[in-house]
Design brief:
Blueprint: H1 10-23, H2 27-42, E1 47-50, E2 53-56, H3 62-81, H4 86-103, H5 105-109, H6 111-125, E3 140-141, E4 147-148, H7 162-167, E5 179-182, E6 188-191, E7 197-199
Antiparallel strand pairs: 1-2, 3-4, 5-6, 6-7
């Protein structure tokens, strides 16, 4: 399925897909945790030159700093791609950020320490959206007072926007759990409550 079938340009289509992907996982927690690992792993191996003066920040625990930094990066990626273990990853990143205070130049000069604490706390606190109500999804109020069909991710595109087509939203019929959409060739496609498509 290409972006042209939805009426969106390539950039808008992928930006919309990224927004949906980002909303289904603790994205900001993972990003901050990945960013926390970089200064923690970098500063013990950095050589700063000021004119002809070379400053080396190497410590005896350089390998410990590298291990903590790499583990924080891996935990951040785990928050993105395995959000089921987000609580474990958040607690582990908080503990690693605390250990980095002692091991790695005050936690990457407090930058990695603070980013690791905030990223871990966001990961522990994040929860997926509430499942739809028993009777199916309820229409959500749009800013102009119109009703939109709410999907399971919580985002409601306006019915007239090209995002509504790209998102795959169909207006529900009064018959219950089946929604329909008229295809370009004139046939009507239906989507059952279990998400299967049929043409007819």
């Amino acid at each position: 399925m290409s972006a042209d079938t939805h009426g969106l340009s390539g950039f808008d289509y992928w930006r919309f897909r990224f927004r949906v992907w980002r909303g289904q996982r603790p994205f900001w927690a993972g990003l901050l945790t990945v960013l926390a690992g970089l200064p923690i792993a970098y500063f013990p191996y950095a050589n700063i030159t000021l004119g002809s003066l070379s400053l080396t920040m190497a410590t005896t625990a350089g390998s410990g700093s590298l291990i903590i930094g790499v583990l924080l990066v891996v935990l951040g990626l785990t928050m993105w791609f395995q959000s089921a273990v987000r609580v474990f990853a958040g607690i582990a990143s908080i503990l690693l950020a605390l250990v980095s205070l002692v091991v790695s130049n005050f936690g990457g000069f407090f930058v990695g320490f603070v980013l690791g604490l905030v990223g871990g706390a966001l990961s522990v606190a994040w929860a997926p959206g509430a499942p739809p109500a028993e009777g199916g999804p309820q229409p959500a109020e749009l800013p102009d007072g119109d009703k939109g069909y709410d999907g399971d991710t919580g985002y409601v595109p306006p019915p007239d926007s090209p995002y509504a087509q790209a998102y795959g939203e169909y207006r529900a019929e009064a018959s219950g759990g089946t929604a329909s959409q008229e295809a370009a060739d004139g046939t009507e496609r239906t989507v059952d409550a279990n998400g299967r498509h049929s043409a007819g």
